[in-house]
Amino acid sequence: MTAEIMFADEQDEIELNEILWDYDMGIPGQAEEMLVFKKEGQTLGGAKIVEVEENRFFLEVLGVKQAQHSQGIGRILLSEILQNPWECCKYPLSKFQLKKPYTITTMARGSAVGFYKKMGFKNCDSLLLPQEYSEQCDFCPDKGECDPSPMIFTGGIKA
User: Fold this and answer.
1) How many domains in the chain?
2) Which of 7, 39, 42, 151 has its CA 20 to 30 A from that of 13?
3) Which domain holds residue 66?
4) Per-residue H/E/C for the chain
5) Per-residue pLDDT averaged across 60-81, rounded?
6) What CATH number corresponds to the domain at position 26?
């Protein structure tokens, strides 16, 4: 059986929670808003992207089952999102437009910055993050250990 990327359903919630708990995170919103990577019926990774305004996205969470690290699952899942975030967002605000630039921002844990850079993200000022996310780490007791870094990806063909 081949791997599949799809939106989660209720049955994926337990596996998604287990994956994200390993990163001290939970499912933001409803499980059905998450994109999942499945192989042989098993959920091995998940991500959630939201469109905060037209052509401006925020990657809320990305996680891969610990036992599956370094097998390309995160790369495959994030590549899918970067190619067409509208298709990977459960409730997009706009529609894909050829030659229209778009941005995806995220708050990466320090240990994941290298991964995001390999995927085309660049470090950025937290002011480029949507306001509701730019201060999410300010009062977190794990901020020092996590070492969060705001990052941005610019996609689309620029005219």
Assistant:
1) 1
2) 151
3) 3-155
4) CCEEEEECCHHHHHHHHHHHHCCCCCCCCCHHHCEEEEECCEEEEEEEEEEEECCEEEEEEEEECHHHCCCCHHHHHHHHHHHCHHHHCCCCCCCCCCCCCEEEEEEECHHHHHHHHHCCCEECCHHHCCHHHHCCCCCCCCHHHHCCEEEEEEECCCC
5) 90
6) 3.40.630.30
